[in-house]
Design brief:
about 30% helix; single chain; about 280 residues; five-stranded mixed sheet; alpha+beta
């Protein structure tokens, strides 16, 4: 079913400030893995050497681990940001256990010599949740996967083009609010917005409401996607059929949060999924 995503702000910001998603939906889809184009679905990967994206709510298999290859006499890992995460070290592998959102570093020490630090990004969990609520079908279909011990697993460099666009809209709102000094532009509570930046920026913008109108529909208690949005606070509570989408959402959220993903929307502040009839007219055009 094609569903409406979020409020449009065309009257305020003009046509260049919102993004159309033709045929987007929040329903789960099937993922065949692989890369490139498959049935009209674009799958992309990017180089994530020296980077790791870890979710507060839990990460997919291997996505929270630093694994060192090569022949070394001694191996150790230095936690440069113990306020953000703990490390569970087992030989050549260090598992990152997140404590709070932020960006930190782990320095591998090989044969007594420090190497280049690994950047650890722990994005706001609310950003992962809203991505799953708004675009889980696209996240699932666009994710690049490989076969692991427990079936298909999202690759560390997997990219969702739709997820990037949805998350960029949220970041664009934050940028405009900071430029104008006005959270009320998108109904965000000023106190909540500035309570713990930059994490609070995302939380306040995503959950913004005037009591009756919600900026992002999955946040609304009566919305069909609300239960999915809430469950995504912890990976263990996510339906098994949505785990690929969740893991992709975590990677997408991290790249938006740390600035690795440039805005693919041209500065959009909102997005809209056409009705079936509108989508047919778009396709005909």
């Amino acid at each position: 079913m094609i569903r409406r995503f979020a409020l449009l702000f065309s009257l305020v910001f003009g046509l260049s400030s919102f993004l159309f998603f033709a045929g987007c939906d929040g329903l789960g889809g099937s993922n065949s893995g692989g890369s490139g184009d498959d049935g009209g679905v674009t799958r992309r990967e990017k180089d994530v050497s020296g980077k790791l994206a870890v979710a507060l709510g839990g990460s997919g298999p291997g996505l929270d681990e630093i694994v060192l290859d090569g022949t070394f006499t001694t191996i150790s890992f230095e936690n440069n940001d113990p306020d953000l995460f703990d490390l569970e070290v087992d030989g050549r592998t260090a598992r990152v256990v997140p404590l709070q959102s932020g960006i930190g570093y782990v320095t591998p020490v090989l044969n007594g010599h420090e190497t280049e630090p690994v950047e650890i990004t722990i994005p706001p969990q609310r950003l992962i949740q809203i991505l799953l609520g708004e675009a889980r079908g696209q996240l699932d279909r666009e994710a690049t996967t490989e076969t692991g011990d427990d079936g298909d697993e999202v690759t560390p460099g997997s990219v969702s083009v739709t997820g990037d666009a949805v998350a960029a809209v949220i970041r664009n709102r934050i940028d405009l609010i900071n430029d104008e000094g006005s959270p009320s532009l998108f109904l965000a509570d000023a106190g909540d917005y500035g309570s713990d930046p930059p994490l609070s920026y995302y939380d306040a913008v995503i959950e913004a409401s005037n009591g009756s109108i919600y900026q992002f529909s999955p946040v609304e208690p009566g919305d069909p996607s609300h239960a999915v949005y809430l469950a995504a606070e912890a990976r263990e509570d996510v339906d098994s059929g949505l785990l690929i989408a969740y893991d992709q959402a975590a990677l997408t959220a991290a790249s938006i949060f740390n600035g690795d993903t440039e805005d693919p929307t041209g500065g959009a502040f909102a997005f809209y999924s056409p009705t079936e009839e509108q989508n047919e007219r778009i396709q005909e055009a």
